[in-house]
Amino acid sequence: MLATLLIAGGVYAAFAATWPEAEAQSIAYNGYWQDTAWEFSAMSILALALIAGVMWRESDWGLAICLFALWLTGHILQFTVPFTDSHTAGWVRLANLAALPLMAGLAYRHVLSAPAATSRDTVLGMASVLQAVRRIESTDDVESALRVVASSIAHALGADIVALGLPFPGPAKGIRIVALHPPT
Length: 184
Hints:
The protein has a two-stranded antiparallel ribbon with strand order 1-2. The protein has two domains: 2-113, no CATH class; 120-181, no CATH class. It is elongated and about 85 Å long. It has helices at residues 2-24, 33-55, 61-80, 90-113, 120-138, 142-157, and strands at 162-167, 175-181. α2 packs antiparallel against α3, α3 (61-80) runs antiparallel to α4 and α5 (120-138) runs antiparallel to α6 (142-157). The chain is mainly alpha-helical and 184 residues long.
């Protein structure tokens, strides 16, 4: 993939350097030899991607096939029936309007299908936080209970440092730190 990107970047740079001379002669880009070369390259890559998608059917392969087929159709139309009086790749832009939302949907489905990372340590850590909350709830001296549970909360959350605080009583705004892990 890196090689493809480097080649495409090099070709683009070469085309960008030679295009202004043709533009000065009022030649439309569509149908120009650079457009033909670019479209042929794009069709080749998209055809290979379409074939690969059919051969290696992974999850959501149908959407991927549709995506590449739409893009390939747009490039084929641009190659065979270009808007000769324009610089805009109209068929490719139209294909992008249909294909790019499919790509976004594929990415979204891929993210949603990833399994949630739950390990035994996470479950045990949350259980220890629940026990700490119950200890705090059942005591009359909240500050001493917070000092006792600060280390178990730090361990459960995987935190190096934990500071637990209570609001100042009365109209003053602020927090008074009552428990630290590690204790200082």
